[in-house]
Automatic annotation (TrEMBL):
<dbReference type="InterPro" id="IPR018146">
    <property type="entry name" value="Glyoxalase_1_CS"/>
</dbReference>
<keyword id="KW-0479">Metal-binding</keyword>
<dbReference type="InterPro" id="IPR037523">
    <property type="entry name" value="VOC_core"/>
</dbReference>
<feature type="domain" description="VOC">
    <location>
        <begin position="169"/>
        <end position="284"/>
    </location>
</feature>
<protein>
    <submittedName>
        <fullName>VOC family protein</fullName>
    </submittedName>
</protein>
<feature type="domain" description="VOC">
    <location>
        <begin position="10"/>
        <end position="127"/>
    </location>
</feature>
<dbReference type="InterPro" id="IPR029068">
    <property type="entry name" value="Glyas_Bleomycin-R_OHBP_Dase"/>
</dbReference>
<dbReference type="InterPro" id="IPR004360">
    <property type="entry name" value="Glyas_Fos-R_dOase_dom"/>
</dbReference>
<dbReference type="Pfam" id="PF00903">
    <property type="entry name" value="Glyoxalase"/>
</dbReference>
Length: 284
């Protein structure tokens, strides 16, 4: 099942602030294999398919390093089309000695964790068949188990890595938030996502169409964590894609009724969550 096309609502694009644009470009081009779609002096749109911007990196004026204990990016997650492709990524990272921060089997998926040169968190993962996911009282069963790295590597002996495959998409986004209840009200009652798993009072996983999660929300940076400075490394904004103009309009109306202010441009509506993270509301 495809969880990243209409009639689902999902995350499609992430815009990052980085401290050194050339250093970041080298990582995303040379290590992960993205290519330049558009480029200006301080901002670059990166693509895999040559048409769609998957990721934007920008060096703000007087860029500051990543600020700890703030709201914003925990990680963005790139979804590869198959286990074989994930195996190719793992083999490539091991071959070049790029440090992994972790690797896990989440039952619904298998994942690798790393960071870009600024410390922006990245997950690269593959989904298991959704028919094999387990649900318990409306919650998807996810856990964190050791990744079977040897079994994964056996899927591919190809050492000629040419970058992430063109079918790679933005699978999900995981954010630090200041208050979990406020975040749930904004993202669920407002934007229209549904809770598919709760980790006590620490984290929520939310989605549409029974995906394991399009967004993760946590308070692991501390309850009340402030938004980072606008010129600090981290997430600048991301894009939420709705299936129709009507669905987007209804979400905007719900947010405005709840007291959130939206701004409109030719490309979409813009709104900021209670923790200070900005997003564009677009239509597929």
């Amino acid at each position: 099942m495809n969880f990243h096309t209409a009639p689902k609502t999902f995350v499609e694009h992430v815009h990052l602030m980085v401290e050194d644009l050339n250093r970041s470009l080298s990582f995303y081009q040379d290590i992960l294999g993205l290519s330049i779609l558009n480029k200006s002096e301080k901002k670059i749109d990166l693509t895999l398919d040559g048409t769609t911007s998957l990721l934007t990196i920008e060096q703000p004026y007087n860029a500051q390093p990543k600020q700890p204990r703030t709201a914003g990016l925990y990680h963005f997650a790139l979804l590869v089309p198959s286990r074989k492709e994930l195996a190719r990524v793992l083999r490539h990272l091991l071959n070049i000695g790029y440090p992994l921060q972790g690797a896990a089997d989440h039952l619904v998926s298998e994942a690798l964790y790393l960071a870009d040169p600024d410390g922006n968190g990245i997950e690269i993962y593959r989904d298991r068949d959704s028919a094999d996911w387990q649900w318990d009282n409306g919650q998807v069963v996810m856990t964190t188990e050791p990744l079977d790295a040897e079994g994964l590597l056996a899927e591919s002996v190809d050492t000629n890595y040419e970058g992430l495959p063109k079918g790679t998409i933005m699978g999900h986004l995981h954010l630090h938030v200041a208050d979990l209840e406020e975040a749930e009200a904004f993202y669920c009652s407002g934007l229209g996502f549904e809770v598919v798993q709760r980790l006590g009072n620490q984290a929520l996983f939310i989605s549409t169409g029974n995906y394991h999660h399009h967004l993760g929300l946590n308070i692991w940076s501390g309850k009340g964590a402030p938004a980072p400075a606008s010129n600090a490394v981290g997430i600048h904004e991301f894009t939420v894609v709705y299936p129709t103009n009507e669905a987007r309009r209804e979400a905007v109306m719900r947010l405005e009724q709840a007291g959130y202010v939206s701004a409109q441009s030719e490309t979409g509506y813009y709104v900021t969550d209670p923790s200070g993270t900005k997003m564009k509301l677009a239509v597929e």
